[in-house]
Automatic annotation (TrEMBL):
A matching Pfam family: zf-CGNR
Name by which UniProt lists this protein: CGNR zinc finger domain-containing protein
Taxonomic source organism: Yinghuangia aomiensis
Top-level lineage group: Bacteria
InterPro entries membership: ABATE, ABATE_dom_sf, Znf_CGNR
Length: 183
């Protein structure tokens, strides 16, 4: 796995909550196990205490995305550095399952929440520094406020997903048609 791909850990963790919709999919140990499965990390041992720990990290990572997306890179970096300091990585070269040698950032020496936070923070740091903080984004299709990393060649990404892009386009089309028929 490329280190930059680990930013997906941060994106998926933050997006377990949809503040604009009032939904939250990180409330139980089963939710944590689902999150781990989604990033391809086997759910070794999820403890009850992992839930509040991951929720706390989630709030900090959301503010990294929000500050970066809204032009406050200093704040975004300060928060991210706090996460990196609190959850250090423990890199290890590994070659399991017949795959080529690659780096694992954290192999559950610490608890599940701690190692997840370490990987998420490191992945986000790699993306923020290689692409630039303005490439961290918040979905532009309200009420969705999902976060994403814009790795597009023309720096044009505005939505978290195809679904939100379609929804936003339909809304614009309807508004135009309404404006036309009002003329
Ligand atoms: Zn591996
Ligand atoms: Zn969205």
């Amino acid at each position: 796995m490329e280190l930059s791909a680990y930013a997906d850990y941060a994106v998926r963790l933050v997006n377990t909550e949809a503040p604009g919709r009032g939904t939250d999919e990180l409330r139980t140990t089963a939710d944590v196990a689902r999150l781990l499965a989604a990033v391809g990390r086997p759910a070794a041992r999820v403890a009850e205490s992992d839930v509040p720990r991951l929720r706390a990290v989630r709030a900090r990572l959301r503010s990294v995305f929000a500050d970066a997306a809204e032009g406050r890179p200093e704040e975004a970096v300060a928060t991210l550095n706090g996460v990196l300091a609190e959850f250090p990585v423990h890199p290890r070269v590994t070659g399991h399952d017949g795959r080529p040698w690659h780096i694992h950032l954290a192999d559950d020496q610490a608890g599940t929440a701690e190692s997840y936070a370490a990987v998420a923070g490191m992945g986000l740091a790699v993306q923020l520094t290689s692409l630039g903080p303005e490439r961290l984004g918040l979905c532009d299709a309200p009420p969705c406020r999902n976060v994403f990393v814009d790795a597009s060649a023309n720096r044009s990404r505005r939505y978290c997903s195809e679904r939100c892009a379609t929804r936003a386009n339909v809304a614009v089309y309807r508004a135009r048609r309404k404006a036309r028929s009002a003329d």
